Amino acid sequence: MKYFRRFFIITVTIFIVFLLYLEFRGMFILKTNDKRTITFNIRSSEKIPNNFSNFYNTVYPNSLSANSWSYMFDILTNPQVPRKECPCNQMSYKILPTLEIKHTKRINYFMNQFIVARFIENKFSQKECLQFNFSSFNFLENRKGLSEVSQSLFKKDVEDLKPMEMVEILALYEAPLRYNRSRNPQKAKERTEHFYHVYLNNSKI
Fold this sequence. Notes:
The protein is mainly α.
């Protein structure tokens, strides 16, 4: 019994240390230039109006209030959970290859990606990460960012978009080539209708 207690205490201690490592390691492994890059990219991103961020949060519930920890726990129960459920984790996934962190092994890469995500989440909100993600996203056909695709598709500012219009942008955001209304009108229509139904169903909850 005494040995089991010691083993249990040691195991719990190692687990806690590992969690603390993941939570705060980003402050130490990220170089000053990397931290400046992250800050600059977020601060210079196009602002998203509330109507669109609220819409996004309805399609992806709690995406603006959760974090990478909750996202990882969700993956344990459902490996198909889209990274879009956690904008800061998605941002970390996108920006990690541009940073100076060294990745010696595949598992090391994924661990660093999570560490960077937690560093970002400790300093910025999910909405700020969402702004970076949309601002840096290439919707193709010379449309980069939310404002450009909104003007291209609907000749409107983002704050004037209706839910049915925002779902089309969200479909493009998922796969801009596959769900392009000009190239694949049927697939674009089906995916837009899917997101619209998700939006309506989640709005009732």
